[in-house]
Automatic annotation (TrEMBL):
<keyword id="KW-0472">Membrane</keyword>
<dbReference type="GO" id="GO:0016491">
    <property type="term" value="F:oxidoreductase activity"/>
</dbReference>
<dbReference type="GO" id="GO:0030026">
    <property type="term" value="P:intracellular manganese ion homeostasis"/>
</dbReference>
<feature type="transmembrane region" description="Helical">
    <location>
        <begin position="274"/>
        <end position="292"/>
    </location>
</feature>
<dbReference type="GO" id="GO:0046872">
    <property type="term" value="F:metal ion binding"/>
</dbReference>
<dbReference type="GO" id="GO:0005384">
    <property type="term" value="F:manganese ion transmembrane transporter activity"/>
</dbReference>
<dbReference type="InterPro" id="IPR009078">
    <property type="entry name" value="Ferritin-like_SF"/>
</dbReference>
<dbReference type="InterPro" id="IPR012347">
    <property type="entry name" value="Ferritin-like"/>
</dbReference>
<dbReference type="InterPro" id="IPR003251">
    <property type="entry name" value="Rr_diiron-bd_dom"/>
</dbReference>
<dbReference type="Pfam" id="PF02915">
    <property type="entry name" value="Rubrerythrin"/>
</dbReference>
<keyword id="KW-1133">Transmembrane helix</keyword>
<keyword id="KW-0812">Transmembrane</keyword>
<protein>
    <submittedName>
        <fullName>Rubrerythrin</fullName>
    </submittedName>
</protein>
<dbReference type="InterPro" id="IPR008217">
    <property type="entry name" value="Ccc1_fam"/>
</dbReference>
<feature type="transmembrane region" description="Helical">
    <location>
        <begin position="304"/>
        <end position="324"/>
    </location>
</feature>
<dbReference type="GO" id="GO:0012505">
    <property type="term" value="C:endomembrane system"/>
</dbReference>
<dbReference type="InterPro" id="IPR017040">
    <property type="entry name" value="UCP035918_rubreryth/DUF125"/>
</dbReference>
Amino acid sequence: MIPGFSSRRRFNDLSEQEVLALAISSEEDDARIYRLYAERLRTGYPATAAIFDGMAAEEDDHRRQLIELHRDRFGEVIPLLRREHVAGFHARRPVWLVENLGLETIRAQAAEMEREAGAFYARAAANARDAATRTLLGDLAAAEAGHQNTAQTLAAEHLHHEARADEDHAARRQFVLTYVQPGLAGLMDGSVSTLAPIFATAFATQDTHTTFLVGLAASVGAGISMGFTEAASDDGQLSGRGSPVKRGFATGIMTTIGGLGHALPYLIPHFWTATITAIVIVFIELWAIAWIQSRYMDTPFFRAAFQVVLGGSLVFAAGVLIGGG
């Protein structure tokens, strides 16, 4: 291949046999993806899984119609042609990434898949010269365009109001268990545990550069430690808390952010300007923690604020007293 030039075929250069082959492989891919979605969601979201089972069955029916047409016109041998071989087509997301998609993301991606399929068949039908091919491709374009209606019909059958509410509740619970709880624990640890070493260093040395380095080291070190601890503590299989890797990253990143929040002001050369700025940021961090607890953990805001601010104030005071002594 000449550098700088794509090896992908242009759609307008495809023969009708190749267009049919592309359509067949696309239907196979979409049916496989829908079945993977169904299996991924079956335990926690059985109603949505039933919807994807129905959509996969429709894709199978489309594929059979396309294969029959290809057999009638071109014989049994179907050329190997896939989306990634044709310019202007986006390859489907690798199926193993299904494990990393949430419920609403999966629903939105399915809708986008149907939109792309409808546009493909409409374009293919416009270029087809054979009447039977043009008719079938046009019918499939209409079918894909109406697939959203099919999904809505299946949703009405399987995803009634109570089922949808249950699934939304389960999705929110999983989000809280996988991201919010570990992230909140990290933010609390990073914000509170680094107060003492940072402010002790600040008041002991009154050197902003040294204080920043201590804060940076404490924040990054705590983030790495907390992240590995969270990932190693629970594989999520029995607890249902989700991927340990996701939880580990959420904890580690938020721990580091919590510590860096009041370490970064010490990039300011003037000691008291940096210290006052850091103190203001500390109180913003503590109130943010209280808000997250209230929003996602159903803790009364003022109780959460009292607990967090009291604990943070005690650690802050300890750092000042140790550094000032």
